[in-house]
Amino acid sequence: MNSGLGQMRHRISLMREEYHQGAGGRLVKTTPIIADVWASIADSTVDLVNRADTQKQNTGLTVTMRYCETSMTASHARLGGTMYRITTKQKHGFLNPSLEMQMSRTDVQKGSVS
């Protein structure tokens, strides 16, 4: 896959989950930013799932960026103010490596289902 600099037009913040002991001894989950990267979005998919009183819209993205070792620890990403969960990561290339990530987002809309 060719991932030239001109194709990387989207700014993505990569985050990982960390658990800290908060006040009263409870575990608190935080998602600190570990890297801000430029990336290209190859394709997206949208699936609608209808349930009793909710409608879920599953959105999936394929994102390609320059490889960085710290980005392999990422579990979440923020793109345009929207949080995504990183489902898979795959490194491509040897001399000029790139990283391809599959990300998914789930929106829940309550109310009547059409």
Segments where pLDDT lies below 50 for 5+ residues? 108-114
Largest sheet: 6 strands, antiparallel, barrel
Helix/strand-derived category reads mainly beta
Tell me the CATH topology. Answer: Thrombin, subunit H
CATH architecture: Beta Barrel
Give the averaged pLDDT, no decimals: 81
Q: In CATH, what is the homologous superfamily?
A: Bacteriophage SPP1 head-tail adaptor protein
Strand content: over 45%
Give the CATH level 1 class: Mainly Beta
Molecular structure report:
The structure is a single chain. The chain has 114 residues and is mainly β. It has a single domain, classed as Thrombin, subunit H, CATH 2.40.10. 0% of the residues lie in helices and 64% in strands. It is built from no helices and 8 strands. It has strands at 10-15, 18-21, 27-30, 33-50, 54-66, 76-79, 82-92, 98-110. A 6-stranded antiparallel β-barrel has the order 1-4-5-8-7-6. It has a two-stranded antiparallel sheet with strand order 2-3. The N and C termini lie far apart (39 Å).
Which short descriptors sum up this protein?
six-stranded antiparallel β-barrel, Thrombin, subunit H, flat, 114 residues, mainly beta, single chain, two-stranded antiparallel sheet
Put the structure in a nutshell.
The chain contains no helices and 8 strands.
Helices and strands in order, then pairings?
Elements: E1 10-15, E2 18-21, E3 27-30, E4 33-50, E5 54-66, E6 76-79, E7 82-92, E8 98-110
Antiparallel strand pairs: 1-4, 1-6, 2-3, 4-5, 5-8, 6-7, 7-8
